[in-house]
Amino acid sequence: MGRFNKLAHAVYDCEYHLVWCPKYRFRILTGEVVMLARDIIKQLCEWKKIEILEGNVQRDHIHLVLSIPPKYSVSEMIGFLKGKSAIKMFDWYLDLKKRYWGRHFWAKGYCVSTVGLDEEQIRKYVRWQLKKDKDMDQDKLLK
Asked: Annotated active-site positions, please?
């Protein structure tokens, strides 16, 4: 159970691989801008209790593997991360406003894929649970 996280009424392992890029795929994430982007994303994830399992900021896109609590939807968290980080980036670097008019720093879309347990491992676990329940029922009948 060490791999799972806990909330008040849930035990979960919800991991997602996320990728998004700046508008027009400009290679803007370099130097001080990349350090600021990393710090902002770390801070925003801490606010929402999102665990960053892996992260990589490239010159023209961001890769993250996040553990997102089930109380949040993936699209909600992407909107939060992209929206708040754009606002903070524009506040720190006024020159970005010239390049990205309308305060739109990130491109509209994103890519997401789930990172989960092996399907065969889950099937074995379900079969094991069924066997365990049958064994418990059998024990009750014998007593």
From this structure: 125
